[in-house]
TrEMBL record:
Annotated GO CC locations: catalytic step 2 spliceosome; U4/U6 x U5 tri-snRNP complex
Chain segments annotated as coiled-coil in the UniProt record: none
Domain of life: Eukaryota
Organism: Aquarana catesbeiana
Protein name: Pre-mRNA-splicing factor Syf1/CRNKL1-like C-terminal HAT-repeats domain-containing protein
Chief location of this protein within or outside the cell: nucleus
Length: 286
């Protein structure tokens, strides 16, 4: 196939892969080098066979030969991440956008998000997040940002690209730090897909920005309670009281926390205080 159709990239890759798996890495490398002359797209396959330093040279050469291919830039970012140079990743991605535009390439937001999802699934988390941040705002009207980003995050979750979704929520929270709805969506994401620590860290930031959002305080207290840390749950509810002194939901949560941990006297005192401070029907029925 390689002889009959030398401009067919899969034929070169298949020949090189065969040599690679049989231990002839140098022969595989030579084949791909020859293939790059016939099929410029084979630069990425060559980079995969090289050492770190040589792969960098190959990718630089590839950029000179094909200045309009975003995959070369993304591969370069992944290479740096894989070799511990995470501080280089964002610079490479930013330079990619600038360079591709200078070469007349339109930045297709959907394509790049798909690239980010593929980086996520390949374990290149830093690259995935850098790509997401770089393109998430492209082509979006200001009034559509929140709605679009929430949809983007849900789409990434449905594709199993959780780090992409996390990067989108983080970006949205920077843009809308006072929006309870965005904090809540991000919190539910961490609750369903993150760790208890990631959820609680997010909720601490959430209540600092939205202290009147009772549900965010209650989620934090419940997380501590479910983990068996009753004193921490009580501390969160105490801070919640300070921010929302007339909230019946927070009073009820404190009463429940006391009664379910056999602190009946504490619960009774809280209930009496609740009746005087937040005289809602639900409290009085208790």
């Amino acid at each position: 196939m390689r002889e009959t159709n030398p401009h067919h990239p899969p034929a070169w890759i298949a020949s090189a892969r065969l040599k690679e798996v049989t231990g002839n890495v140098q022969v595989a490398r030579n084949l791909i080098m020859k293939g790059t002359e016939m099929c410029p797209k084979l630069w990425l396959a060559l980079a995969r066979l090289e050492t770190y330093e040589n792969a960098r040279k190959v990718l630089n050469k590839a950029r000179e030969n094909i200045p309009t291919d975003r995959h070369i830039w993304i591969t370069a970012a992944k290479l740096e991440e894989a070799n511990g140079n995470t501080q280089m990743v964002e610079k490479i991605v930013d330079r990619a956008i600038t360079s591709l535009r200078a070469n007349g390439v339109e930045i297709n937001r959907e394509q790049w998000i798909q690239d980010a999802e593929e980086c996520d699934k390949a374990g290149s988390v830093v690259t995935c997040q850098a790509v997401t941040r770089a393109v998430i705002g492209i082509g979006i009207e200001e009034e559509d940002r929140k709605h679009t980003w929430m949809e983007d995050a849900e789409s990434c979750v449905s594709h199993g690209a959780l780090e992409c979704a996390r990067a989108i929520y983080a970006y949205a929270l920077q843009a809308f730090p006072m929006k309870k709805s965005v904090w809540l969506r991000a919190a539910y994401f961490e609750k369903n897909h993150g760790t208890r620590e990631s959820l609680e860290t997010l909720l601490q930031r959430a209540v600092a920005h939205c202290p009147k959002a009772e549900v965010l305080w209650l989620m934090g207290a419940k997380s501590k309670w479910l983990a068996g840390d009753v004193p921490a749950a009580r501390s969160i509810l105490a801070l919640a009281f300070q921010a929302n002194p007339n909230s019946k939901e927070i009073w009820l949560a404190a009463v429940k926390l006391g009664s379910e941990n056999n602190e009946y006297e504490r619960a009774r005192r809280l209930l009496a205080k609740a009746r005087s401070s937040a005289p809602a029907a639900r409290v009085l029925i208790l």
